[in-house]
Amino acid sequence: RTLWQTVLVDQSGADLYSSPVVVGRSLYIGTSAGLGEYLDPNVRIRGSVVALDSVTGRLRWKTYTVPGGYDGGAVVTSAAVDTRRGRLFVGTGNAYHQPAAATTDAILALDTRTGRRLGAFQATRHDVFTDRSVDPGPDLDFGASPNLFPGSDGRTLVGEVQKSRVYWALDDRNMRRVWSRRASTTRNHADLDTLASTAYDGHLIYGQSDDGQVWALDRGGRFRWTTRPSGLENYSPVATANGVVYSISKAGFLTARQATTGALLARMPLEARCWGGISIAGGSIFAVTGTDATPNGYVVAYRPRP
């Protein structure tokens, strides 16, 4: 039965791609306008982050990512939450019309209690893009979820990979760049579209680029290992557990690699195209199939042989 339901945004063309994050009785989720961006040249929607009471669904606060009079700044993935300091971090997308706000193509820090913006880092300025744009910008959203991890000097960093294939690591106190790394060794610049959320296991940061290259960075931004680009589209988040890194290709394969070296351990067919993420629980690995072009997906579970 339905316990509660809450309308987060009621503008035409708005949508929800963000998965919620629950901390105690607080639920945090982002809003976006992917359909509006690609179908409606007049889209004027502002992205936002919303906090609800997870038990009642009551709105606690809603913070728009761009000021009034601007548009864009979609939040399409999940927030990272620092429960000790009471901060949450999200990435934002491009603007839809000129001028672009300084909080588009950015990583934002918000107060978890009030939603007040505490800081922002903009990676790409003046990025204005829709599918109908006459002179479109580079479309370099932050479409992945952030990571929180200790830097090599001990301070807490917030990191996120941008569509440009660049992983940005920021000081979480002032949102200033500490280091950045182009998280792909391929020289193909034709289609920069890295959307896969990264994973951190206490030692390394793991991710995959849209060209199918899987990689690992240390906390100082140095490559520990990379794989060769597969030539297949890859947008799915990676996951890691028990010294293994898991990734999915859009073509429909689940791949397992050794976390320390990137050595291939297994490549398992999912029998359908994929764009979703991976969950690991109870000794099993769960993956989902289906894309916007193949909506009839299903859940696949793998478990190691005894």
Characterise this structure:
Helices cover 2% and strands 36% of the residues. The protein is an all-beta fold. It has a domain at 1-182: Lipocalin, CATH 2.40.128.630. A hairpin with a 5-residue loop joins strand 9 (147-150) and strand 10.
Which helices and strands occur, and which strands form pairs?
Blueprint lengths: L20 E3 L2 E6 L2 H6 L8 E6 L5 E6 L15 E3 L4 E5 L14 E6 L5 E6 L24 E4 L5 E6 L4 E6 L5 E6 L16 E2 L4 E4 L5 E4 L5 E4 L12 E3 L2 E6 L3 E6 L5 E6 L8 E4 L2 E5 L10 E4 L4
Antiparallel strand pairs: 1-2, 2-3, 3-4, 5-6, 6-7, 7-8, 9-10, 10-11, 11-12, 13-14, 14-15, 15-16, 17-18, 18-19, 19-20, 21-22, 22-23
Features:
mainly beta, Lipocalin, 4-stranded antiparallel sheet, 306 residues, 1 helix
User: Helix/strand-derived class?
Assistant: mainly beta
Number of strands: 23
Name of the CATH class of the domain at 1-182: Mainly Beta
Mean pLDDT reading: 92
Can you tell me the CATH topology of the domain at 1-182? Lipocalin
The number of helices is: 1
> Helicity level, as a percent range?
under 10%
Given the C-alpha coordinates, what overall shape results? globular
Order of helices and strands: EEHEEEEEEEEEEEEEEEEEEEEE
Please sum up the structure shown.
The chain has one helix spanning 34-39, and strands at residues 21-23, 26-31, 48-53, 59-64, 80-82, 87-91, 106-111, 117-122, 147-150, 156-161, 166-171, 177-182, 199-200, 205-208, 214-217, 223-226, 239-241, 244-249, 253-258, 264-269, 278-281, 284-288, 299-302. It is mostly beta strands.
